[in-house]
Amino acid sequence: MRKKRLLILGGGFAGLDIARSIGKSRAARDYWDTLLIDKENFFQFNPLLPAVAVGAVETRHIVYPLRDMARHRQIRFIKNKATHIDLTRREALLHNNLVMSYDTLVIAVGSVTNYYNVPGAQEHTRPFKTIVDAMYLRARVVELFEMAEQAETAEHRAKLLSFVIVGGGVTGVEVAAELMDMARDTLLPKYPHLDRKDLSVTIIEGGDRIIPAARPEHSAYVYRFLVRRGVRMLIGRPAARVEPKCVHLADGSKVEGFTIIWTAGVRPPDLVTGLPVLHIKDGRVRVDDYLRALDPEGKPIEEVFVAGDCAASLRPDGAYQPALSQTGVAMGTYIGGSLVKRAKGKPVTPFRFKPAGYIISLGKHSSVLELFGVPLSGKLAWLLWAAAYLIKMVGFRKQLEVGIDHLTHMIFEHDSSQILNRRQILSDEELNLSLGR
Ligand SMILES: Cc1cc2nc3c(=O)[nH]c(=O)nc-3n(C[C@H](O)[C@H](O)[C@H](O)COP(=O)(O)OP(=O)(O)OC[C@H]3O[C@@H](n4cnc5c(N)ncnc54)[C@H](O)[C@@H]3O)c2cc1C
Fold first, then answer.
1. 437 pLDDT tier (thresholds 50, 70, 90)
2. Is the pLDDT of residue 378 over 90?
3. Are 201 and 228 in contact (CB under 8 A)?
4. 38-67 pLDDT, tens per residue?
5. Of 230, 244, 254, 160, whose CA–CA distance to 198 is shortest?
6. Is the same domain home to 259 and 405?
7. Do 335 and 304 sit in the same domain of this protein?
8. Fewer CB within 10 Å, N or C, the chain?
9. What's this model's pTM, rounded to 2 decimal places?
10. Shared-domain flag, residues 125 and 232
11. Where does the record place the FAD/NAD(P)-binding domain (predicted)?
């Protein structure tokens, strides 16, 4: 019997777990001819990106080569980008015009930065979504300290060291907290001409509180924590327009920043939003209880599954599952398990998932979390944060590497070396501005 062609698009939290489930079962390997396609050849552990951005965790320690997994689990992998999916012909078109046909498709391509059509946002801000974004931010922060150290006026120093983060969700507050730790505790003491008052970090949040996904008392806790660390908080003040080095707010005021980071939200990629299926308002694909995509009439499309950030799965309370790594893992494990069951001729049960809670890191040795309804904050929460993510890292090697990073970081300060070329970090225009021209 010909093996069924299973095509998995995206090797992130959801896709990786599907591939691993299939690979673990001999029956599934005999039944499915599995091909995993990802535009990168590695999996990246997003929750630790803010820590990478300040060097608290080493860059390579949070990525895992998909090819190693593919070889180990005896499935096929290619690095390529899917550009179009033809649901009628059951084909995916790849970047180099390669066509991949399938019997069963899993779409798990995650999300992209959402600029909410704010004019100038995409052009004049930096996203914070990939390992490259994190590496870039770290290099940029250190480089700007080096330049500010040589600036001649206080005004010039303050201009170079002004950081603005648009979006006070989990990513925004984690980046702000890590940035403050690195800037205040590690960098400032090393630059004799720089002072705390030269540095500014501002969070702009359009909603009425930061981290809306967390319980209100945690939002308030994080707000107070960041204000104590010196972060300027502009809450309930949406960004309306962005110009180079300046965010205009809806109330008519403006905030200047030499580095503007956009962490205001995500949406599914165009590959997904362009599909002729049922979408919810934020662009995610509506799926049924078996995580099959629904067609525009609301009927399940056989053999097309959607998982992770691009899937909208309805919970019993009428809300949609949140776009989180734990949701991605749960969906991936479920689809993987269902495909294994099918290979073994066993019946498949519907998808059920209740998030365990959330964990928000606030930099060196502080976190807030809620696990199974129990809230916690402070150092103990940080230890639980570190332990939880250590357990979730893919493979023993990565667990060891990140564990050693955490231990090292408990004893020593951030590494402040900057190894990129200045021209790789700053545009010509920025170079002129930074030199005071
Ligand atoms: C900075 C940051 C911090 C975060 N922190 C947390 C946190 O603390 N806790 C939490 O629960 N969640 C966190 N998240 C969210 C979490 O990372 C996502 O919910 C999760 O990654 C979703 O899993 P996924 O499999 O849907 O997508 P991803 O893990 O993003 O994987 C998608 C994969 O698809 C690939 N891909 C994309 N487009 C294509 C294409 N066209 N063709 C081929 N391959 C493609 C990508 O390269 C990627 O490997 C964070 C996200 C970010 C960016």
1. low
2. no
3. no
4. 999 999 999 999 999 988 899 999 999 999
5. 160
6. yes
7. yes
8. N
9. 0.94
10. yes
11. 5-330
User: What number is the average pLDDT over the span 83-97?
Assistant: 97
Secondary structure letter of residue 127 according to DSSP:
E
CA 407 to ligand 1 center in whole angstroms = 26
Do residue 333 and residue 209 come from a single domain?
no
Closest CA relative to residue 205, chosen from 219, 191, 217, 193: 219
Q: What is the atom index within ligand 1 of the atom nearest the CA of 129?
A: 53
Q: How far apart are CA 236 and CA 307, in angstroms?
A: 32
The first and second tokens of residue 272, run together, are: 């997904």
On the CB side of 124, CA atoms within 13 Å amount to 19
**Of 323, 355, 387, the domain-final residue:** 355
Rounded to the nearest angstrom, the distance between the alpha carbon of 187 and the centre of ligand 1 is 31
Ligand 1 environment, Cβ below 6 A = 9-15, 37-40, 46-47, 49, 81-82, 108-110, 128-129, 170-171, 269, 271, 308-309, 323-326, 328
Q: What crossing angle do the helices spanning 66-73 and 13-24 adopt, rounded to 10°?
A: 20
CATH code of residue 148: 3.50.50.100
Under DSSP, is residue 239 helix (H, G, I), strand (E, B) or coil?
Answer: strand
**Average pLDDT, stretch 401-416?**
87
Task: For residue range 259-305, list pLDDT tens digits in order.
Answer: 999 999 999 999 999 999 999 999 999 999 999 999 999 999 999 99
The closest-lying atom of ligand 1 relative to the alpha carbon of residue 324 is 19
- CATH number of the domain at 273, please: 3.50.50.60
